[in-house]
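Technical annex, item 7. During the second reporting period the consortium partners agreed on a shared format for inverse folding records so that results from different sites could be compared directly. Each record opens with the tokenized structure and is followed by the designed sequence. A conforming record, contributed by the partner at site C, is shown below for reference.
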């Protein structure tokens, strides 16, 4: 059965950067939103999807930009804060059919052209790739169980601080056709998961929108060594997206070239100035 994706893309160009961190390659926030959106849109070209922009009082420039994409829904309102935008995103995600995959995405994540090709292959074969309970039983099988039956959440970037001494963790590593996937236990609110998983952890996901608080989400939802009543969260190696903030970009990927390729395509379509 072909995977159906519901993309819920939160966008706001009123604030350049919440933490005053510079954008890479000299981009401003509007340029960052355009490139991030377009990179996801291009990566989905062979996928079955519905794409919704959750706008928080978007500028006319961005509204005009999104009008170039006939199959994209723009839901723009004066929400006034990241918390209210996230709460609206969660409410929309809860309405998605339980067997569909929801990508709750922030507006400053650049994606590789093959991101959803890799993701789809992994999801389609996850029962094989995530299986941890083999024929030979051992104490690990008894404690952990079979991870292929555990709710799965995908965090598409690979943050470089995961390799710094204070943040190094023991992790499961899984191999798929195109890349490795590492188990992680902390993320931002850019997540890909089944709608049924959102419903399962609704209480905790909604609570994490107050603030918002990435740590509330991570502590309550993600398993580290034990996965009873928890989800398995993984990120790809190499990363399939990057947060567009200087100092935290996914390593070992030529993001500047990916940016330029997206800009060149948009220029050909007459939608980049």
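Designed sequence (site C submission):
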């Amino acid at each position: 059965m072909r995977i159906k994706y519901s993309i819920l893309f939160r966008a706001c160009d009123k604030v350049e950067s919440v933490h005053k961190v510079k954008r890479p390659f000299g981009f401003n926030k509007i340029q960052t939103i355009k490139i991030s959106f377009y990179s996801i849109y291009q990566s989905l070209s062979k996928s079955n999807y519905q794409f919704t922009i959750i706008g928080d009082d978007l500028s006319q420039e961005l509204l005009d930009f999104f009008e170039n994409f006939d199959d994209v829904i723009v839901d723009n309102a004066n929400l006034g804060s990241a918390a209210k935008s996230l709460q609206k995103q969660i409410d929309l995600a809860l309405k998605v059919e339980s067997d569909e995959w929801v990508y709750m995405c922030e507006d400053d994540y650049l994606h590789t052209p093959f991101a959803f090709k890799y993701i789809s292959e992994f999801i389609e074969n996850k029962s094989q790739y995530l299986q941890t309970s083999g024929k030979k039983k051992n104490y690990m099988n008894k404690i952990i169980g079979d991870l292929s039956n555990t709710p799965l959440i995908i965090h598409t970037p690979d943050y470089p601080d995961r390799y710094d001494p204070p943040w190094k963790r023991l992790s499961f590593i899984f191999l798929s056709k195109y890349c490795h996937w590492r188990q992680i236990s902390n993320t931002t609110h850019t997540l890909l998961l089944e709608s049924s998983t959102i419903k399962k952890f609704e209480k905790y996901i909604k609570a994490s929108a107050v603030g918002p608080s990435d740590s509330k989400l991570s502590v309550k939802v993600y398993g580290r060594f034990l996965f009873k009543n928890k989800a398995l969260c993984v990120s790809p190696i190499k990363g399939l997206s990057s947060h567009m903030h200087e100092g935290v970009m996914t390593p070992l990927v030529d993001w500047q070239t990916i940016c330029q390729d997206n800009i060149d395509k948009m220029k050909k379509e007459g939608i980049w100035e």
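Residues 19 and 176 are 35 Å apart (CA to CA). The first strand starts at residue 4 and ends at 11. All partners now use this format for quarterly exchanges.
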